[in-house]
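Could someone model manganese (II) ion with this protein?
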Amino acid sequence: MTASQTNKVENALDHFRIETPSWGFADTGTRFGKFVQGAAAIDINDKLADAGQVHAFTGICPSVALHVLWDFRPDQPTSEIVQLAEKYGVRIGAINPNLFQDQIYKYGSLCHRDEEVRAAAVKHLLESAELAKAARSQLVSIWLADGSNYPGQANIRWRKRALIETLHPLHEALNDDQQILLEYKPFEPAFYHTDLADWGMSYVVAKAVGPKARVLVDTGHHYLSQNIEQIVAWLLDTGMLGGFHFNDRRYADDDLTFGSIDPYQAFRIFHEIHFFAWETKQTPQIPYMIDQSHIDKPKIEAMIQTAVAAQELFAKAAAVDHEKLARHQERNEQVDAEECLRQAFFADVRPVILEWRKQHNLPADPLTAFRESGYEMRVASERKNRRAKLGIAASGSYA
Ligand code: RM4
Ligand code: MN
Ligand code: MN
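Reply:
Sure, complex below.
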């Protein structure tokens, strides 16, 4: 790598932070069942402690996204959760309302035909806004499971209008420095239509709701072979990119480790961001978040692996020679333009990352250092006992 590339990579490393999801530390499964792991987090204290480990060893995961129904309890003040996070060296990140678990949401939440259900969903969003304020979080991140399973079942246009209307109270309740992130997903749990199926729908709704709403790109929420980096480029150019949920996928919303299947796609997404920053001379403040729940990999190791992979791909993408690329693009020199990307993708940025870790008193190899710490074995034995006392057993059946 040239001196200028090294410089760009160092600068990228100084700016790159990525949020971990609380649910990624707990036992999760597929709809066919759940496999319990000894060391998996049982409660919010465990989740924050584990997230603290990921940050301690990587130095790049200072915040943790929380899911309202899974992490907050009515008998636990939010201030206590804020303090717990502080104790473990992290802070609270995005607050994720839950509009999909309650029985009343069988036919939707914000888009439900029944006014009472819509009102309950709005109330939950307003409570989520309060939690976000109490937790000093700037993000209320919404994934809407609303949709329908059969043709003709739903009035799609009516539901679109209901959605915009029901998001307004939340928008008004937020402070100016807070944001609504609108995630889209073309399938699951609904399999005929989902009310926010793609980035265009999230964009239209966000625009109609107001300036505090933006689009969230979950890399697992697209049809196969969709050009995600193009979506990112458009959202950057329109000022509507609100954040990311990173994960990788092979077939559906697989929630596999980021970069494990297609690292070049992750690189291309990061490239669009660096290219935008270079062209506009401003580094966009984008909340990068991990949205993965590993079914069988050890949770903390998988999260460290993810954060490190994301950091490396972000650094590689920073090494693209933008001046050169812009020149080749103008002259339609496609081979040379593509080579700019390939050169950076195959460049070894690891020595620069190692140096950066050394400067920040971080272990050279976060994964090995975490393993050597013995944390996982320690918590596994304590959590196994606690699980037994609480009567938590391997669970789940399809029917
Ligand atoms: C969804 C979506 C959301 C996440 C839930 C659990 O597929 O990715 O972001 O909160 O899963
Ligand atoms: Mn997501
Ligand atoms: Mn998902």
